[in-house]
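Usage example:
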Amino acid sequence: AQSVTQLDSHVSVSEGTPVLLRCNYSSSYSPSLFWYVQHPNKGLQLLLKYTSAATLVKGINGFEAEFKKSETSFHLTKPSAHMSDAAEYFCVVSDGGTDKLIFGTGTRLQVFP
Amino acid sequence: DTAVSQTPKYLVTQMGNDKSIKCEQNLGHDTMYWYKQDSKKFLKIMFSYNNKELIINETVPNRFSPKSPDKAHLNLHINSLELGDSAVYFCASSQEGGISNQPQHFGDGTRLSIL
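Running the assembly step on the lines above writes:
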C-alpha cells in the first residue's frame, strides 16, 4: 500500500532563507507524487506533481521538488522564503491505478521577518 | 470565477440534526470527491464520484450519503450528526477519474461544528 511520511510537523525559517520540507514515500510501484499547500481557512492548492517524467519538478511560487527513487524521497525546496509562504504543506501520493490521494500529516511552515 | 465552490462555509448545529453541504465545480471535470480534515489537519478521502457514479466509498458511516445530480455537483448529506463529525469537509474535482496522475482541485472547505 502507498503511504507518505512527512518528517517534520513544523519548520520555521527566516524570510529570504532556503526552505526544505521533507517527505518520504512508500510505494510498490512507480508512484505519482504531489505537493499541496493549504493557507489558513482555504482549500488545498497544487504546488507541483511528479509523474515519472523529469525527476526535478518545478512548481508554482518558486517551489521545486526532486524525486529520488534510491532514497524514496520527494523533498520540497525553495531557495528563498517569503512571508506569504507561511502555510501548511502536504505531501501526497496517489494510490496507483485509481485517483485516490493519500495525504501525509502535513508540515506547518512559519516564516519570520 | 470560483472553480470548486462549497456552501456553506461554516455550519454550526446540534447533535442529532441532519445537514447538507453542497459542492459545485465549473471546470468541466468528470470526477468529484469529498474529504474530511480533522482537528490535527489529517485529510482522508470519503467518497468519489465519476460522472454521477460512486467510485470510492471509504468505509464512511452510512449516516453520510453523497448525492450527485449531475457531474458538476456532488452534495453531502449527513444524518443524526455526532460530536465526532466536527471537522472541515473539502470537496474536490479532477479531470478524469481512475488516472493516478491527475491533480485535484479543492474548494475552500466547510467548517462543521457540532454542539
